[in-house]
Amino acid sequence: MYRSHNCGQLRISDIGVETTLSGWVQVSRDFGGLTFVDLRDRYGITQIVFNMDDNQDLCEQARKLGREFVIKVSGQVRERSNKNPNRPTGEIEIEASSLDILNASKVPPFTIEDESDGGDDIRMEYRYLDLRRTPLQQNIRFRSKLALETRKYMDSQDFIEVETPFLIKSTPEGARDFVVPSRMNEGQFYALPQSPQTFKQILMVGGFDKYFQIVKCFRDEDLRADRQPEFTQIDCEMSFVTRDEVLKTFEGLTRHLFQELKGIELGDFPWMSYDDAMAMYGSDKPDLRFGMEFKYLNDALQGHGFGVFDSAETVVGVLAQGIADDYSNKQMKELTSWVQRPQIGAKGLVYVKYQGDGTIKSTVGKFYSDEVLLKVLQDHGAKPGDVLFILCGEEEKTRKQLNELRLEMGRRLGLMKEGDFKPLWVIDFPLLEWDEDSERFHAMHHPFTAPKVEDVDRMLTGDHETMKSLRADAYDLVINGSEIGGGSIRIHDRELQSKNFDLLGFTKEEAQAQFGFLLNAFEYGAPPHGGIAFGFDRLAAVMNGQSSIRDFIAFPKNNQGRDMMIDAPSPIDQTQLDELSIALNVQAE
Amino acid sequence: MYRSHNCGQLRISDIGVETTLSGWVQVSRDFGGLTFVDLRDRYGITQIVFNMDDNQDLCEQARKLGREFVIKVSGQVRERSNKNPNRPTGEIEIEASSLDILNASKVPPFTIEDESDGGDDIRMEYRYLDLRRTPLQQNIRFRSKLALETRKYMDSQDFIEVETPFLIKSTPEGARDFVVPSRMNEGQFYALPQSPQTFKQILMVGGFDKYFQIVKCFRDEDLRADRQPEFTQIDCEMSFVTRDEVLKTFEGLTRHLFQELKGIELGDFPWMSYDDAMAMYGSDKPDLRFGMEFKYLNDALQGHGFGVFDSAETVVGVLAQGIADDYSNKQMKELTSWVQRPQIGAKGLVYVKYQGDGTIKSTVGKFYSDEVLLKVLQDHGAKPGDVLFILCGEEEKTRKQLNELRLEMGRRLGLMKEGDFKPLWVIDFPLLEWDEDSERFHAMHHPFTAPKVEDVDRMLTGDHETMKSLRADAYDLVINGSEIGGGSIRIHDRELQSKNFDLLGFTKEEAQAQFGFLLNAFEYGAPPHGGIAFGFDRLAAVMNGQSSIRDFIAFPKNNQGRDMMIDAPSPIDQTQLDELSIALNVQAE
Q: Rounded distance, CA A40 to CA A70, Å?
């Protein structure tokens, strides 16, 4: 037996108990007559004392213990003279009567402490040491609990978890597939699922009614920061539902998770159309922890002889509160440079300061009288102390730039408060996006998304321009500016699905080859259905106010898609290639 | 809104309620003035009545409904005159006042009933229809509940569910890997995990202490009946544990699952050594629902002048109770042919009938006096009416043959009772198996399995012959003759792990290239640890007394590894091949 208790368990009420603990040496301190060892396991840290007077051999053995040695200690629980109120076990210590070294440890390449001194690469290579750190332990435990609470809630709502297959069929639509050569079917490949989309729809056709799954998905994309080639989804689908029932169900799930895991009662989940979100925030995932809605200023500011505004499609601003007297010219210049960076791409930044004393100061003061500017400010709810920042140009571009500025001001002014969570449903997305380069439509959500009921006729009979205006019965859940998930009511009618494939540029043959099974299934009594998928890694990070998903994944890959610890991917044997009937086709460098 | 209630919900207490139901037409019966429709969804079946007198249009619409049409019906709940006591909703029916056809259906290629008239291939191709059948719905729901209860129990025991990666590294040991070409790392491949073995051990080194996961695993093997290329495991690992603690934990899980899902209180889980299991049953997974232990007869039957027995290494039998007077000569002959089939491979079958009247009848009567045979029978507990079946030959082979005969007699005599569950821990497996063909050792469990503590010294210092006698700290859970799972205490010492790799024929370089990360991890304070994995598909089938796992998997593959519904695997585009830097190397036929 390695332990009678764990290292987070013993308390003052256990004094006198004979105990055996096993764990890692967090630190060992030698005070001559006494040696103190902090023994750590997943559950906590307990102090062990070795006394030179009582047992010299044991104490000398203890002096040789290095950090991260694995030991087993037996002894009696006693009260500490020097208590540590910051530790649940801080009132007691173990007077050691025996010690076994279960395993030694080399000196770790970085310290196993909350704030590690290891860089990203070394932490990835020695992930087993990084995972010992408390913040990572907490993240991975949070993730485990998040999954369990998700499952309990879904079960309470009568959902069935069904495992869909991982070895499926490659479809060149959307992102790139990871593929798997089939040994038994020469020259053929499986693909790893980008999502279980078609299978969950098939489950609805199969009568499962309410399906969910917490499931790994795969996308072979060039990895940007915080993208992983394999990621986890909470994937759901329901039959005989309208959009509102789907939103209600997953609002319920989200509330439950925040309540159970964070003790937070979420406020209302407002709904906002895609068009409104773009108009008010220049983004389909606005952070609602703060206001700063867009102010459209064409009417107010065009026609006053300021050519830059007069010639712009859109003149639009945001109001930053209470900074007019504090923000220096230097800061304003720096902010102008910030919006002019290539990543943002604004030509310039106009501001109107409504100073504390009621006076106006503006970069466009020579084009507008103070009266005009004051009226603009007051019409848009500004108070003395506020600054109106204005961008102008082509509408879509300018909105995106102003979205970046709004978020940056939110960060600078501390408006994105930790512990504050603002959920939002964004609804009524466009069904199709016209891509100028390839001259074809793309599905904004995916090819299985239904148009809104009132747009079905226009979709079946309309012309090319009409298609651009179709709205999808699609929705996204956004929390604090992060997209947590999205979904839609699906097409369940073969004719409408075929029409959609047509619009997306599939030939009949391509549609049949790739999705024939789904089209066929629609002919055997497919029920109306819809669903949603939440990004599980993202949800875990957002609930903890963190922006990176990597520390919520036990074994993440780096930006080149490599697992640094196991050193994968790697070459395989020629025998394996031969068995799979493939050959390498690597260009000499 | 598509429904106010589901099709399994309404009762006699709901009479008068206005309701809306949606579902599939199970059957429609036209009785002239009245048309009855059985409306089905996941929750049950409700009878709908359309009345020609009340609403002619509606009734005529209803007459046109085919099987599997998807409809929405509104109406009032009323008491049935002709009640159906076999159906929870059988006391009521809905008097329809409106009908919407949500989707039509072609005539299904087989009937959606408990006993389908579809063959395997057609059922696989139209899996969405097969999944509508009640037995499959029940299986998939059972599986969902089994997973949830597993998770709840593991959580109650402080286990953390951690997701391990799917894109890992190929290791040519063991079964064949499925591999995934990496686009970003030219000429390199990921492998899909055959199990999360090394990752769960890394998690122990990372201090997670108690890990579990319900996880998909992949093996590219030639598929025998009831093998799937992707399958699901309950995968577990614990730190600071001995074998007995692991067995106790997973006995607890198994008890919990039988209790919660089947309402069955399992009896004791006996432990049996591998050697005993092989000696008593000729199998490492004996079915303990019935006895028929092996009787070794060398001492009793050799030296009596019967050359076949005298020259055999082993003479061994089983006792079949109460059939001596019933089993005809013809049946005995048929049984002899059965054991002589190439799949079994016995040379012949000897029997000794202890007839009801106390007399003896035997195929070897001319070599043995009745007194000798009677003594053998009585010494081995036979009673009048029993038959002793005897095989002889080389020990290992003969045991296997007799195991097959024992199981066959168990089946023929109805000794494998439905609803009877007999769990068994088989322990103390050999560590290494000598393979005559390749002249090397194979790991009986896997290369990370620890020898029993008392065998460590012999392993580190012994000669070649010694290695054959090493016992592993490994264990299997067997229920009713099916292997539910297996595991072991692992090596956590770098030196011992290196020694094991040596024995298994790895060069130092191979061991480092494939498992360097684990060997390195062992140098940074690896705790003693061990674990187990249960076959989840198998567990679900065995708990339901079924032998095939296929109907407990929503989307299984056929014996050629094909998904018949989506028609995968399939060829991929040249562009995809080029991006992955691979070429097909398919032989012209």
A: 9
